[in-house]
Design goal:
With 754 residues, the chain is α/β, with parallel strands linked by helices. The protein contains 21 helices and 29 strands.
């Protein structure tokens, strides 16, 4: 059987496009008519977003001086604010309601970093459409997602919101998420306007410290950090959000080069850009503006159309126009972009939400089933020594140990929309449901104490947040959690499943970590349980790779579960007991130690990549290779690669490269493999990565079954920027691999560009 996979040009993703279409003449005429009637204050109001339906904000709404409200959730509450805008304001311009729907609204899906590891953009698209359907049912028409920042430093907490380290995977997922949110039309009642963020290079902050400085080359900007944004724009993202950081000395919110030269002129983006929360005023502490008026002028003229939350546009724009510092043409163009999205979203014709949908469209059984399936596909099996997994359902006694095992709240992760802890499935609940005849023993073992940051920069334990636990009837030793009680429970069991990792609030915004060890005394707990000699399965729950070298050396089975959302416990149990085969793969390289950071697969080779002596790039005290490479993931079966065929051994620069290979399930169980296609240009005007992902495919095979997988990629997609920042496709030899991960040899060949 032949399975053909067509990889698309990143810069020309073929999708439905909304704001990047040629503007609708009828809409433009209606915008022209409105602009002629608007006062400067009303124009400034359309460029202003405020948080919540406070009395002060609602008074501004009645005056027509608010363009958007965020965090106004609930159909009836949103309708009440909308009524003020469309019935009491002078020009009756509707509001656009925004909310952070990052990985689900009420039904919570795996974190984006987790679902990126599914390598299943179709399923991700379906999940985002469910999120959009639930959000619009509750009065939300605009989501501040997807986040598409490429992240190569796991110390950075916000990497949980993105697609990992690779620009190609990140681009495919970015486009899928935009399509899911926006559907066939942003005017549809169950579609939301996407807001792709954070533009741009926010994931490259120095030291992994949130909001910190970024200093990278133009080539790195264009080849690594811009492609996912471009893919989102080409997929039709209605809006973008500017980032917090300074990029090469210019703060993102005031960066004319990225916001206007690239976004508007090169990419022809016609939607609007909103600032991140309060970031316009942050030009003052950055040292680029002396006051709010100068900050507003810098941001607006650079290309930020809407000011989120700080109110400085409304305060400053009228005086800036009156003084002549701000041309009316610049103001009108920004207002035009905001109004264009409102017209395209159908808000002028249908400004209100249907409250009945809150009873029918939210947290349905179908939505939960989809959450469970995506969660299954997001789990990555890292190690399975002696085929310890899957566990037998007739196992007599299972010890479930760890601070996250009986916890519901932390399964949701960070940025949980309008989620409810009630109904979320904890790991131990999932295990008990999957193996109802087993005796399930439980011990928490230790607490995970969250960090509290003080002004002097030290770290101290903070009070643990209240969290809803799982099943109260689970057998647990009396008294407070202790390692001794956990050991006692482990000794009574046939197998131990341990749930260790981070609390959900240790990841996300403003949650950078200098150490990536298991926090608290979890390592001591693990070592004590291992000392019992019982077989141990370690399930990691985190928003980032952690330093687990010691566990990798001693634990027979390790599974990375991330934070999987509403159905976390069921999905983990499905994989533990083999009801679902593990098929997730790592969307970023897994570090051995913090000292390696950044560690990523598509690095440059350097002039001394290897050597039999010490005179090569590397460390004296550690391998330079990751613990697990990008794209890595095991299954309960094994796969073999064979018969690579380069179907186009010679192509022109405007031709198409076609490569095929045979993949066989060589084991005794059905499984799904993520087949990956990598390319390397041997000689180019600028140094090239050792490998670059250019395609992938999920292939499900029965035992003994084989399939031929074919990849097609345009030759211009394997090009690069020369020193003059011109995209070229250098002639010469290119290496190709069809492999299981970025370090796997797989099967390889070459083709020539003439």
């Amino acid at each position: 059987m032949r399975l053909r996979i067509l990889t698309v040009l990143l810069l020309c993703v073929s999708t439905v496009s909304f704001s990047q279409q040629k503007p609708n003449p009828q809409i433009e005429q209606r915008i022209d008519a409105l602009l002629k009637q608007m006062t400067v204050e009303e124009k400034a109001g359309q460029l202003s977003q405020y948080s919540g339906p406070t009395p002060e904000n609602l008074e501004l709404v009645k005056k027509g001086e608010v363009g958007s409200l965020l965090n106004d959730v609930g159909a009836e509450q949103a309708n009440a604010a909308q009524k003020l805008a469309v019935e009491q304001s002078r020009l009756k311009i509707p509001l656009l309601f925004g909310f952070d729907v990052i990985h689900g609204f009420r039904t919570i899906f795996p974190l984006p970093i987790a679902s990126a590891g599914s390598f299943d953009p179709d399923l991700v698209e379906q999940a985002e459409h469910v999120a959009a359907k639930e959000a619009t049912a509750s009065g939300v028409k605009w989501t501040f997602a997807p986040m598409v920042d490429v992240a190569r430093d796991p110390r950075w907490g916000r990497m949980v919101e993105g697609g990992g380290e690779d620009p190609y995977l990140g681009s495919i997922m970015a486009a899928a998420r935009v399509r899911g949110f926006q559907g066939k039309s942003i005017a549809d009642p169950d579609s939301v306007v996407a807001c792709t963020k954070h533009y741009v290079a926010y994931g490259a902050v120095e030291g992994g410290r949130d909001y910190n400085t970024v200093d990278i080359s133009e080539q790195t900007l264009r080849e690594v950090y811009l492609p996912p944004f471009h893919a989102a724009v080409e997929a039709g993202s209605g809006t973008l959000m500017s980032a917090f950081e300074s990029l090469n000395g210019v703060v993102a919110v005031a960066n004319h080069h990225t916001l206007t030269d690239i976004l508007r002129k090169e990419w022809k983006f016609t939607g609007f850009v909103v600032s991140d929360y309060g970031s316009v005023m942050e030009l003052i502490p950055h040292g680029m503006a002396a006051d709010g008026s100068q900050a507003a002028l810098l941001a607006l003229t650079a290309g930020v159309d809407m000011d989120m939350a700080d109110g400085d546009y409304l305060k400053s724009i009228p005086a800036l126009v009156k003084s002549g510092k701000l041309p009316m043409s610049v103001l009108d163009e920004a207002v035009r972009r905001v109004l264009r999205i409102k017209f395209e979203a159908g808000l002028f014709e249908h400004p209100y939400f249907d409250p009945q949908r809150e009873q029918t469209d939210i947290y349905t059984s179908e939505n939960l089933l989809l959450s469970r399936k995506l969660a299954q596909e997001s789990i990555v099996l890292l190690k399975n020594e002696s085929n310890l997994l899957p566990l037998a359902k007739n196992t007599k006694t299972i010890a479930v140990i760890g601070p996250l095992a009986n916890d519901r709240a932390d399964q949701l992760g960070s940025w949980v929309g309008d989620a409810r802890v009630e109904g979320t499935v904890s790991p131990i609940e999932g295990i008990k449901a999957a193996a109802p005849n087993a005796q399930v023993l439980y011990a928490k073992g230790v607490e995970i104490e969250p960090y509290q940051k003080f002004e002097w920069g030290g770290l101290s334990p903070a009070p643990a947040p209240s969290t809803a636990t799982g099943v109260a009837e689970t057998v647990e030793p009396a008294g407070p959690p202790s390692i001794e009680s956990a050991v006692s429970v482990a000794q009574k069991a046939d197998v131990v499943v341990m749930f260790l990792g981070e609390l959900a609030n240790m990841t996300g915004e403003a949650s950078s970590r200098a150490s990536l060890d298991l926090p608290g005394k979890q390592r001591e707990l693990l070592e004590a349980v291992l000392a019992t000699g019982k077989p141990v399965v370690l399930v990691l729950e985190s928003g980032r790779p952690l330093d687990i070298r010691f566990a990798n050396d001693r634990v027979p089975a390790i599974m990375q579960a991330w934070y999987l959302g509403s159905q976390a416990g069921n999905a983990v149990a499905d994989v533990l007991f083999g009801d679902a085969a593990p098929s997730g793969h790592l969307p970023m390289s897994w570090l051995r130690s913090v000292g390696q950071i950044p560690v990523y697969y598509d690095h440059k080779s350097t002039g001394r990549p290897t050597s039999p002596d010490r005179w090569h790039t590397g460390y004296l005290d550690e391998s330079k290779e990751p613990l697990y490479p990008f794209g890595y993931g095991l299954s309960y079966t094994t796969f073999k690669y064979a018969n690579l065929r380069v179907l186009t051994p010679s192509v022109s620069a405007d031709g198409t490269v076609r490569v095929s290979a045979e993949v066989q399930n060589a084991g005794s169980r059905a499984g799904t493999e993520v087949v990956q296609f990598y390319v390397h240009d041997r000689v180019a005007p600028t140094t090239r990565p050792v490998r670059e992902l250019k395609g992938f495919s999920r292939v499900t095979l029965s035992p003994g079954e084989s399939k031929t997988v074919e990849f097609s990629v345009k030759a211009k997609d394997v090009g690069s920027y020369n020193p003059e920042m011109t995209w070229v496709v250098p002639p010469g030899t290119y290496d190709v691999w069809v492999a299981a991960n970025a370090s796997d040899g797989g099967v390889q060949g070459t083709f020539e560009v003439k």
